[in-house]
């Protein structure tokens, strides 16, 4: 009898071991975090247009840089104006840093040229925003190259500031001016004959 009970118990254990496991719910990526891809970054807003960035960042900081070093000629002769103290040099550097970074914002994909309601002040010589948009969209590599010229000129300006080199800063500021004017002549007022003539005289003619 004891032998029979042991044999019966062994048979029950063997049967239990060979039974199929209970069905499990399907696994999702929540249960398998190693299969999940990297989290998607949220889309950044781009409410500002190219014109907005020019008006709020490039123009005021460019003007501050232009005014930082000058040669003023009057009845008393030529007076040079340039940064003198470390604080004044650092202030110029801050303005140049904005000019280095602004082109990155200008060329962001999806950035519009101007608000739809914006109109040219002088349509006889200025392009309307939609005309500028067509020029930008038709050849984005050239637009990016023009923006890069501003960036490169501002970088040279920062190097001049770090070296406290007034002559190098003056040259960099001239390059900033040429980069800005070159872009404006091509996109915003290509029909302004007087501006085009002055540009040729000052060496601002466009180079793709």
Brief rundown of the structure:
This protein is mostly helical. The protein has helices spanning 2-18, 50-66, 86-106, 129-138, 140-163, 166-187, 193-201; strands spanning 70-74, 77-81.
Q: What can you tell me about this protein's structure?
A:
There is one protein chain. With about 210 residues, the protein is mainly alpha-helical. It has a single domain, classed as Four Helix Bundle (Hemerythrin (Met), subunit A) (Up-down Bundle), CATH 1.20.120. About 60% of the residues lie in helices and about 5% in strands. The chain has 7 helices and 2 strands, in the order H-H-E-E-H-H-H-H-H. It has a two-stranded antiparallel sheet with strand order 1-2. Strand 1 and strand 2 form a beta hairpin. It is globular and about 60 Å long. The N terminus is likely disordered.
Task: Give the SSE map.
Blueprint: H1 2-18, H2 50-66, E1 70-74, E2 77-81, H3 86-106, H4 129-138, H5 140-163, H6 166-187, H7 193-201
Antiparallel strand pairs: 1-2
Helix pairs in contact: 2-3, 3-5, 5-6
Number of helices: 7
Average pLDDT works out at 82
Largest sheet: 2 strands, antiparallel
CATH superfamily, please? Cytochrome c/b562
User: Which CATH class applies here?
Assistant: Mainly Alpha
Could you tell me how far the N terminus lies from the C terminus, measured between alpha carbons in angstroms?
A: 103 Å
Q: And the CATH topology?
A: Four Helix Bundle (Hemerythrin (Met), subunit A)
The outline comes out as globular
What's the Cα radius of gyration? 33 Å
> Strands of the largest sheet, in order across it?
1-2
Total individual domains: 1
The beta-strand count equals 2
Class per helix and strand makeup: mainly alpha
CATH architecture: Up-down Bundle
Which spans have pLDDT < 50 for at least 5 consecutive residues? 1-18
Spell the H/E element sequence: HHEEHHHHH
Tell me roughly what share of residues is in helical segments. Answer: 55-70%
**What is the percentage of strand-forming residues?**
under 5%
């Amino acid at each position: 009898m004891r032998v029979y009970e042991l044999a019966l118990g062994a048979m029950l254990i063997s049967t239990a071991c060979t039974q199929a496991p209970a069905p499990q719910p399907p696994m999702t990526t929540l249960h398998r975090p190693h299969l999940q891809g990297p989290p998607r970054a949220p889309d950044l807003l781009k409410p500002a247009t190219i014109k907005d960035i020019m008006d709020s960042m490039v123009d005021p900081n460019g003007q501050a840089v232009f005014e930082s070093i000058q040669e003023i000629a009057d009845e008393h002769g030529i007076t040079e104006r340039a940064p003198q103290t470390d604080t004044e040099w650092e202030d110029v550097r801050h303005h140049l840093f904005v000019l280095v970074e602004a082109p990155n914002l200008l060329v962001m994909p999806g950035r519009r040229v101007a608000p739809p309601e914006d109109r040219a002040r002088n349509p006889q010589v200025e392009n309307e925003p939609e005309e500028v948009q067509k020029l930008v969209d038709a050849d984005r590599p050239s637009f990016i190259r023009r923006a890069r010229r501003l960036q490169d000129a501002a970088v040279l300006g920062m190097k001049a500031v770090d070296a406290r080199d007034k002559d190098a800063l003056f040259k960099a500021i001239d390059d900033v001016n040429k980069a800005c004017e070159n872009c404006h002549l091509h996109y915003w007022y290509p029909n302004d004959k007087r501006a085009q003539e002055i540009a040729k005289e000052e060496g601002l003619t466009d180079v793709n």
